[in-house]
Amino acid sequence: MRKKNSYRWLIWIFLAVILIGVALWNILPPYIDRWQSTKDYEKLAEEYVSDESEPDDGKQKKKDWWSTDIKVEFDQLKTENPDGIGWIRFDDQNELGINYPIVHSGDNEKYLRKDIHGNKHIAGSIFLEGLNQSDFSDLYNIIYGHNMNNGSMFGSLKKYKDEGFWKKNQYFTVYTESTAYRYQIFSYEDAVNGGNVYYIKSVISRGKNTRRLLTRW
């Protein structure tokens, strides 16, 4: 009788181990993928971006430090992926950690779940709207990034719901091969999928030069 009970317990333990294994098999991969994605992009930032904005003598940063002291190795980035057209970097890396390459493929699907190496990643890449010009010459540009639960990619932007945080963190820069675009954040909004923020239709003509606003209906 005792042997039968022992066998039953062994069977239950065996089944429990199998169930736990199956559960972990389904639960863990997304977390591992997020962790790996974060590590990969941190490595990219170390390889392609040099930050000399912190003076060794303890003095304050230069007024235009974001332009003169942050260097992006675009030659290397282009070699890695010809779709690399820029780099987005928020000033306070400790608070936001947004420091990523920007890619542009002409559509909004290619990099939705792929990193800049073309590998499948749940976090995807930071990419410019497919209808935008790749040189950021449009009057209205949309840069997409996933709202990751671990705060990576554009997940940390939720902090801007706090007005106090916004007041202390108003600036970011988009770097291209030819220039650095400095932006001041004036508003935060939780955009709804298919909302008006994505639907702009207008063309502005100025003499011989025509500058367009993003058109998507």
TrEMBL record:
Signal peptide span: none
Domain of life: Bacteria
InterPro entries (alphabetical): Sortase_dom-sf (IPR023365), SrtB (IPR009835)
Transmembrane region(s): 9-28
Key words of the record: Membrane, Transmembrane, Transmembrane helix
GO MF entry, a single one: hydrolase activity
Lineage per the UniProt record: Bacteria, Bacillati, Bacillota, Clostridia, Lachnospirales
Coiled-coil boundaries: none
Name of the protein: Class B sortase
